Each structure stands twice: as structure tokens, then as C-alpha cells.
From TrEMBL:
The lineage of its organism: Bacteria, Pseudomonadati, Pseudomonadota, Gammaproteobacteria, Oceanospirillales. Pathway: Cofactor biosynthesis; thiamine diphosphate biosynthesis. SUPFAM superfamilies: Heme oxygenase-like. Its EC number is 3.5.99.2. It comes from Vreelandella subglaciescola. The keyword Hydrolase applies. This is Aminopyrimidine aminohydrolase.
Length: 222
């Protein structure tokens, strides 16, 4: 029998869809998102990515085999080398300097989500941690694909957020996402129903925190 990653998304379908198809995402795809909301999101996401880089470092520390260590490294590279580099460049284009980024106060939604993942990883085992991290890596890859399939999505110079979609639909990010799903599929195949129920709760909590992160961007909440 056994489980796979798609069983987590199916078990949390309502929250998963609320995350993937959030108004922030729709407005970004349509190119109608307010600049101020995107800027607020970009700034907080910089802080978010730094903490998620730390969470992948924790996954590396918790890895007992070379294969697990490599998987943690792949996740960390996706965050640090693919996303953060491009992110700093986006911020520059949107008038946010590295000095601005360094001085940012952390919004409550950023604090709640990042510390939840780090706490879950500290308390639990490597699988708990990867499950807590998965809505981040898998979710954004899925969002880019979902946006591309929507009739309201505008691509190219017509949409000021086009480069954001391009980053997450890009081959490097999509490959990192597929590698994470494959790693999770192999681990979930071995778990009992009781263990799956624990993992489902972690996945659902992290997904709800992703929803709050989008909402924080829309509301420009601190
Ligand atoms: C809040 C959030 N979640 C996910 C991702 C994609 N790594 C991100 N950049 N920011």
C-alpha cells in the first residue's frame, strides 16, 4: 500500500487550493496586483527565504545518509542560488535596495510561518521537516503551472509580474520541485496510517501559513 505526496495534497484539498489559487496569485497572474502589495510581499519574502535556507541547513544536519544530505542540499540550492539571487535582483528593479532589505522588520505572518517550520524540524525527524517545507517548494512550482493554464493570466511585457512567474516555471525550479516530490514519495510509501495522520497535520498547518503569507501581502500587514 503506502502513501505518496499527492495523498497529502488530496487530504488537505480545500486549504491546498486556497493557497494555490489565492487572490494574490490570481491578481499577480492577471497583472492587476497593486505595486505596494507586491513590494510588501517581496520584502517579507526575502526574510522568509533566509529562514527557509536555515531550515534546509537543519535538514542537512538531520540527514543520516548521503542521499538525504544531497536532497537537503538541492532544496537549499533552490532557495539560495535560484530564488534569493533572483529575488535580490527583483527587489532592486522594484526600488528596494539591499540596505532596505537588511533593515526590514519581520511581519507576523513571516515570523509565524518560518518559526513553525524550524520548530517542527527541531522537534521532529527529517520527514516531519521535509513535509513542513514542501508547500513552499512544491506549491510555488504548482502555482506557476496553474497560472499558465488560466485564461486570465497575461504573460510577457504586458504583465509587470511576468518575471516572477518565469522564475517558478523555469526548469531549475521545476526540477527541484520534482526531486522533492520523488524524495517524499519514497519516504511516504513506508509510513503507517497513524504516521500519515501526523504528517498530514504538519502539511496542513504549513499550507495554512502559506495562505496567511499571501494575505499578509495583499493587506500589507505588519
Ligand atoms: C512564502 C513563500 N513560500 C514559498 C516560496 C517558494 N520557495 C516563497 N518564495 N515564499
Amino acid at each position: 500500500m503506502g502513501y505518496q505526496f499527492s495523498d497529502l495534497t488530496s487530504a488537505c484539498e480545500q486549504d491546498w487550493h486556497a493557497y494555490i489559487k489565492h487572490d494574490f496569485v490570481r491578481q499577480l497572474g492577471a497583472g492587476t496586483l497593486e505595486d505596494g502589495a507586491f513590494r510588501h510581499y517581496l520584502k517579507q519574502d526575502y526574510l522568509f527565504l533566509i529562514h527557509f535556507g536555515r531550515a534546509y541547513a537543519l535538514a542537512a544536519y538531520k540527514s543520516a545518509s548521503l542521499a538525504d544530505l544531497r536532497q537537503a542540499l538541492e532544496g537549499m540550492k533552490a532557495i539560495i542560488d535560484i530564488e534569493l539571487d533572483l529575488h535580490i535582483e527583483f527587489c532592486r528593479q522594484w526600488g528596494i535596495s539591499e540596505d532596505d532589505l537588511a533593515a526590514l522588520p519581520e511581519a507576523r505572518a513571516t515570523l509565524a510561518y518560518t518559526r513553525y517550520v524550524l520548530d517542527t524540524g527541531s522537534r521532529g525527524d527529517l520527514l516531519d521537516l521535509h513535509v513542513a517545507l514542501s508547500p513552499c517548494l512544491v506549491g510555488y512550482g504548482e502555482i506557476a503551472r496553474w497560472l499558465n493554464a488560466q485564461p486570465f493570466t497575461r504573460r510577457g511585457a504586458d504583465n509587470p509580474f511576468d518575471a516572477w512567474i518565469a522564475m517558478y516555471e523555469g526548469e531549475e525550479f521545476q526540477q527541484a520541485m520534482q526531486a522533492e516530490i520523488a524524495w517524499l514519495d519514497a519516504r511516504l510509501a513506508e509510513v503507517s496510517p497513524a504516521r500519515f495522520a501526523e504528517l498530514k497535520k504538519i502539511f496542513n498547518d504549513a499550507t495554512r501559513l502559506e495562505i496567511d503569507f499571501w494575505q499578509m501581502g495583499l493587506d500589507r500587514a505588519d
